[in-house]
Amino acid sequence: MTQEELFYSIFENIPRQGPGTKASTLKAFSAIKTLPQDAQILDIGCGKGVQTFDLAEVTNGTITAVDNHPFFVDFLNQKASGLNLQNRVTAMFADMNDLPFAEKQFDLIWAEGSIFITGFENGLKNWAKFLKDDGYMVVSEAAWFHNNPPEEIAGFWNAVYPDIMSMEEQQKLIETCGYQIIDLFQLPKEGWLDEYYAFMEPLLESARNEYCNEPELAGLLNVLQTEIDMYKKYGDYYGYAFYVMKK
Ligand SMILES: C[S@@+](CC[C@H](N)C(=O)[O-])C[C@H]1O[C@@H](n2cnc3c(N)ncnc32)[C@H](O)[C@@H]1O
Fold first, then answer.
1. CA nearest ligand 1 atom 14, residue
2. CATH no. for residue 31?
3. Residues 126-148: pLDDT tens digits?
4. Does 224 map to a domain?
5. Which domain holds residue 47?
6. C-beta atoms surrounding 51 within 10 Å
7. Among 43, 67, 72, 112, which is best to mutate for testing ligand 1, by the most ligand atoms less than 8 A from CB?
8. What is the total count of domains within the chain?
9. Ligand 1 center–CA 114 separation, angstroms
């Protein structure tokens, strides 16, 4: 087993691939008041598509979901067929850094817990061209909720994602990139603890027992466990900020 195989064996077997809740997805969606009935929606970095299917419940539009991990693409398409949604929910393999879409193709771009992969500023700037003139973008992104976080958690984030910003800095950047902020809120803690880490932690524990003599695999499991431990200890200081933006 390689590190990559172990990584995916964990992420393929949990419902969400990042922190989130259905209530937060629906809250962000409900802030959008002027979406056409037949809206064209793009879900970037969809994973297994929890938010994709939550959106499919509240819109009659067409959702294109993209991910660069083939298992997630196949999973989502099979689930769409099982729910008889294959005519308006489709997953495809694509790289969020080089999306194969036309300019002004979408009414709404959705990216829960994934814009960090291309970079917050990059995503805001590079994905705008795929939006219609009065289109919307919704993202959730890691943010500091308090100034002056303790050294231990500041050091952790500096190592894993030094581009993390405060919500004030993110709001300024969003406006500089030409969007109007329609709504913003913090993902509640249950989005991390109950909907995400509660599923991941038991898988880490059993993998730790299985791979305790394989230092590379044990190292990956430690990295994932540390992320959970840090959130449990310092989850007041940071989290995911949701932004609903209009182009
Ligand atoms: C943190 S997960 C979030 C998944 C999902 N939105 C959720 O909240 O459950 C990020 C997703 O982005 C995908 N991903 C990573 N790099 C990508 C890329 N370059 N292009 C497209 N998708 C990518 C991963 O496979 C993963 O499914």
1. 45
2. 3.40.50.150
3. 999 999 999 999 999 999 999 99
4. no
5. 18-189+236-246
6. 29
7. 67
8. 1
9. 5
pLDDT tens, 192-214? 999 999 999 999 999 999 998 99
pTM: 0.97
* Binding site membership of 16 for ligand 1 (Cβ less than 6 Å): yes
**pLDDT value for 157:** 97
Answer yes or no: are the C-beta atoms of 18 and 113 closer than 8 Å. Answer: yes
- CB count in 10 Å sphere of residue 27: 15
Q: What is the pLDDT of residues 56-96, one digit of tens each?
A: 999 999 999 999 999 999 999 999 999 999 999 999 999 99
Identify whether 3 is part of a domain.
no
Question: Residues 8-36: pLDDT tens digits?
Answer: 999 999 999 999 999 999 999 999 999 99
Residue count (the chain): 247
- Say how many C-beta atoms besides its own lie within 10 A of residue 54's C-beta: 19
Of the candidates 23, 14, 17, 11, the residue with the CA atom closest to the CA atom of residue 187:
23
Query: Is 47 touching ligand 1 by the criterion CB < 6 Å?
Result: yes
Relative orientation angle of helices 215-234 and 3-11, to the nearest 10 degrees: 40
- What is the pairing mode between strands 106-112 and 89-93? unpaired
Average pLDDT value for the chain: 97
Q: Is 179 inside any structural domain?
A: yes
Of all residues in the chain, the percent with pLDDT exceeding 70 is 100
